[in-house]
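Open question from group meeting: does this chain pack into something compact, or does most of it stay loose? Before anyone orders reagents, we agreed to write out a predicted structure and look at it together. Recording both the input and the output here so the notebook holds the full record.
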Amino acid sequence: MAVVNFAMPLAKLWIGGSRTILNAKTTTPMDLFDFLDEELNDDIEVELRRKTSRGIPDILIDDRLVLELKVEPKKTERDRLIGQCCDYSVEYMVWAVIIDMPDNKVDELCDLLNRKDLNYIDVIAVDSGDDEEEED
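Structure tokens returned:
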């Protein structure tokens, strides 16, 4: 199965359903795992925190794509994320899933990855919408 066979449906799930599953107060790798395991085709294996030769990623999909999840990451967590993603990228496609990080910090992270020629690490930034809901 080509990577595209699950990456495109996965991207559509993120775009179409992220607000329903992602909430900064409750989202954990387990929440994301449960969501993906339920939504993706049964032919696509979704594993939570499986040990690999490169470490223990939050989620491994079809032994090809690593999702590393951070919620409201501080600078030290962002730095750790870059190291984790670099290591996983030796063997896997890598998506850094960032929840509730200010847009300027997302831009800084993407800029840093590009300047270090790490632009093969995709950053998926998600706003849980908590701020908007609290204002109502």
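Observations to bring back to the group:
The chain has a mean pLDDT of 78.
The helical segments are 4-21, 29-39, 75-88, 103-115, 130-135.
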